[in-house]
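Following up on my earlier message about zinc ion. Here are the inputs again, as you asked, copied directly from the submission form:
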Amino acid sequence: MTKLKSGDRIDVRVKSSVIVGPYKDYDEIRTFQIIAKDKYGYYLYVPAYYTLKNTLKLDNRQSKQLGIDLKFLDEEFIYIQGNMVLRVHSTLDGMSCSNCEEFYSMAEPNQEDDTLICYSCRQNPYR
Ligand SMILES: [Zn+2]
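Thanks, got it. Here's what our run produced:
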C-alpha cells in the first residue's frame, strides 16, 4: 500500500456508524482525511455532519502531541489501525481512478461524488 501522510484521503467501510475492516459486512463506504499518523495507524478527521461512534474531540494537548493542525481544534477525530484502510481515495500528489484503481499523479476529482474516473475508463467504462 502507498505510504500515506496527513492530507491524504482514504476510503473505509462503515457499518452501523462504526468503521469496520476492508473484508467486513458494511452499510457504506466513506472517505476521510488523514490528519496525523503513528506507527500503527491513522488519525482521521470526522466532519461534524457525519455521525460516527467512538470519535474523540481534539483538544490542545492532543493537537500538540500528535502534531495535528490547530484548525482541527474542537473537531471530532477517530483513530484507526492501518489495516482498516479499504483503499486510498486521493493523496496530495494525485489520486486513483475509482474504476480501474490506477494511480494518476497530480490528478483531481472529476466526478460529483469527489472521485476520479480516468480518461480511459470514461472512454470505455467496460474496460
Ligand atoms: Zn480508470
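One observation from looking it over: The pocket of zinc ion is lined by residues 97, 99-100, 102, 118, 120-121 (CB under 6 Å). Hope that helps, and feel free to reply on this thread.
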